[in-house]
Amino acid sequence: MTDSTGATGDGAGGRDAEAVSRFVESFAAQLVEAGMQRMPARVFAALLASNQGAMTSAELGEQLRISPAGVSGAVRYLSQQHMVSREREPGSRRERYRVHSDQWYEALTSREAVLKRWGNALREGVAGLGERTPAGRRLAETLAFFEFVDGELAAMMERWRVHREKIFGG
Amino acid sequence: MTDSTGATGDGAGGRDAEAVSRFVESFAAQLVEAGMQRMPARVFAALLASNQGAMTSAELGEQLRISPAGVSGAVRYLSQQHMVSREREPGSRRERYRVHSDQWYEALTSREAVLKRWGNALREGVAGLGERTPAGRRLAETLAFFEFVDGELAAMMERWRVHREKIFGG
DNA sequence: CGCTTCTTTCAGAAAATTGTGAAGATGAGG
DNA sequence: CCTCATCTTCACAATTTTCTGAAAGAAGCG
């Protein structure tokens, strides 16, 4: 089935498997340090470093030495976070997991959901403690900061798209 | 010793302890979900919700029901992340931990160290996989994105300072 | 100097998280 | 309608993380 010499061109394929693995593990380690779970981090890094930006479950399992269950869990997490998308190649039940550059930048920056929940907690705090109290004012200012950031991020992403086009050409 | 009726005016003090605790726990929960450790998150939220934006170790321990050791560990982490600063009130060995709004916004956004490490991992990846390969190009684009964001964040914080002054008055 | 008060460090118990094998589900193709 | 390939769910074992009590370390104050 899977041609170990790399006819697929995905994953480590025929390439310098050593270099791929070095990158995957070191980048994943950074993601872990930033709070991401280990397995999703490794899967994500592997996809980033894959030739086509997409790999099947089997390829991921083989390259990272993890069980199908592990791949499944990692991928579920990643797609909930909108960091990867899944595609079915027609005619097979094999699923491919793909990282769209654009998509994952968005996911990273548009912590929209996060900002919203933080905002809610802060709003309730202001209400509960009283707008007039020192603590209430502090929370209100923090809330204002998050709302500000939320607005700015959208604009920043727009600038990024322009910037990116200039460099890489859409 | 510590006047349990709240003469200090810090922490929950004479205020609606119920409301304070509700905010602390719910905001801390959000921070935890975003990847922060539980105890630092609770300590930080408690400081945010305190009257003076500062509390002593004993006050934190009492309000959050955690041991001095727990406070110590949490505070060490928070000050490493530049989210709180420590002050000695002269004449006592009591230490006060304070959250400066400005300071912690900076800490939150200037993920400088993080971005730098991610950048390094990506740069090595590009070198290892080859700039000409599809994977190399993908990593290079990701790297460019981080460098872009890094630059933007500084500008954003500057705009925030202006915006904030307008609303809250320096 | 030594007493007292507060903080930090450390080893270990308790709890949470992680990754696996095995069994179950899902759907293409005969 | 059955089979085969694939993915997912679940219960559990192993690891890791978290928090504590106890003891050691600092620093004011007499």
Description:
Chains A, B: Residues 35-95 form the HTH marR-type domain. Chains A, B: It holds the Pfam family MarR_2. Chains A, B: One of its GO terms (molecular function) is DNA-binding transcription factor activity. Chains A, B: Keywords: DNA-binding, Transcription, Transcription regulation. Chains A, B: This is MarR family transcriptional regulator. Two copies of one chain form a homodimer. Chain A has 170 residues and is mainly alpha-helical. Chain A folds into two domains: 17-99, Orthogonal Bundle (Arc Repressor Mutant, subunit A); 110-168. The first copy, chain A, is 65% helix and 6% strand. Chain A is built from seven helices and three strands; from the N terminus they run ααβααββααα. The first copy, chain A, has helices at residues 17-33, 38-48, 57-64, 68-80, 101-109, 112-129, 134-168, and strands at residues 54-56, 85-88, 95-98. The first copy, chain A, has a three-stranded antiparallel beta sheet with strand order 1-3-2. In chain A, helix 1 (17-33) crosses helix 2 and helix 3 (57-64) crosses helix 4. The two termini of chain A are 36 Å apart. In chain A, 29% of the residues are buried. Residues 1-9 of chain A have low confidence and may be disordered. Chains A and B meet through helix 1, helix 5, helix 6 and helix 7 of A and helix 1, helix 5, helix 6 and helix 7 of B. Chain B binds a DNA duplex (30 and 30 nucleotides) through residues 37-39, 56-58, 66-73, 76, 91-95.
